[in-house]
Amino acid sequence: MKRKDTHIFELLVDKYLDGTITPEEEQLLLGFLDSYKNKGLWDLKLGNKHEVKDAIELSIKNRLTNSKSGYRTYYLLVASIILLVGFFWAFKWQGGIVNSMQVVVTTQAHQDSLLLADGSTVYLNRYTTFKYPKAFNGKLREVELEEGSAFFKVARDESKPFIVKTGVLKTKVLGTSFNIINKDTLVNVSVSTGKVGVCVGDQFINLLPNEQAHWTSNGSIVKSKGNAHLYDNWILKTIEFDDVSLDELSTLFELRFGYTFHFTQPELKDRHVRISILKTDTVESLVKKLNYITDVKFKISNNYEIEITPNQSM
C-alpha cells in the first residue's frame, strides 16, 4: 500500500478508537474497500461490503478488549486493515473473477468478430459494446455485453465456466453456441447448441437448443421455444429459409440489418415465406424481393422500420 494511503488509514483508525470519528470519516475508512468493489475487483464469495464492515468492527472491538497496550492495539488495527485490503489485491492477482487488461470494443454501422484468448469466437452486431479481458487468469472466463447483440461460439472448458454479464443477468456455459440481445429494457438469450444457464438474482433456468429466455424490466425471466437459426444465421453470408413466418423474419432483419418490422395488422405476423438472403442483399433489395414473392406490402419508413400492410391490389 502507498505511504499516503497508510497514513490516511492510521488517522481514521485513531479517530475510530478514541470515538471522535464522524460518520463521513467512517465511510471514508470503508471507502478504501468500496473502491475495490467499484473497480470490479470484489468477489461476492468474500462477502458483501456490509459483512466486511461488520468484520472490521468486530476485529476492532476484540482487539480493544484483549489488548493491554493502546499503542499495540493501534498498530494491530492499522496492520489488520492494511492486510485486509492487501488480501483483495492478492485475490485479484491469484485468480479472482475479474481479470486485468480489460478491452472494450464498440461497433458502429458494421459487424465485427473477435477471437478470445481461450479460443472462443464472438460475433458482434451493429452498435454493440463488448468488454473482455486479454487473458482469462481466474477460475472463470467472464466477459460483458454492455449493449447490442452478439453470437458466441464458446470453446469448451469444464474446469473454467464461461460467464456473460448483461446488466443484472448472467449467462453461464461450459462450451456451446448462443446469441444474446441486450437492447433497451429487453434481454434475450437464445441457444443454438449445448446447454446454457441463465440467472438473475435468485432466479435460475437452464436452456437447451431452440429454447430462449427473455428478461424485461419487471425483473422476471420467461422461458420459451424458439428457432435458434434466426439468431445464429445473421452472422452467415447467405441464408436459406424454406418456410419462415414474417414474425420470425423480423428478428433476422433486426439482427442483420438493424431494421424492425411494424405490422399494421397482427395477423400478418403469421404469413409464411420462402426466401434466400444473399451476401450482397441490402434492405432495399430484400424489401423489393418480398414485395414480389408475397401478398403483403413492405415499405421502408423512417427510424429503421419496415411497415407491413395488406396488399390492396391483390
Give a written overview of the molecule:
This protein has 3 domains: 3-93; 102-228, Jelly Rolls (Sandwich); 236-310, Phage tail protein beta-alpha-beta fold. Helices cover 32% and strands 33% of the residues. The chain is built from 7 helices and 18 strands. Strands 1, 2, 3, 4, 5, 6, 7, 8, 9, 10, 11, 12 and 13 form a 13-stranded mixed beta sheet that branches. It has a 3-stranded mixed beta sheet with strand order 15-18-17. A hairpin with a 7-residue loop joins strand 4 and strand 5 (141-153). Helix 1 (3-17) crosses helix 4. The longest helix is centred in the first third of the chain and has 24 residues, at 70-93. The chain starts with a helix and ends with a strand.
- In the CATH hierarchy, the architecture of the largest domain is Sandwich
| Helical content band | 25-40%
| Structural class assignment | alpha+beta
The strand count comes to 18
CATH class of the largest domain, anyone? Mainly Beta
What is the beta-strand fraction?
A: 25-35%
Total of helices: 7
Oligomer kind: single chain
Give the biggest beta sheet: 13 strands, mixed
The overall pLDDT average reads 76
**Alpha-carbon distance between the two ends:** 78 Å
What is the CA-atom radius of gyration, in angstroms? Answer: 27 Å
Low-confidence stretches: 1-6, 36-55, 82-100
| CATH topology name of the largest domain | Jelly Rolls
Q: Which term fits the overall shape?
A: elongated
Helices and strands, in order, run as HHHHEEEEEEEEEEEEEHEHEEHEE
How many domains? The number is: 3
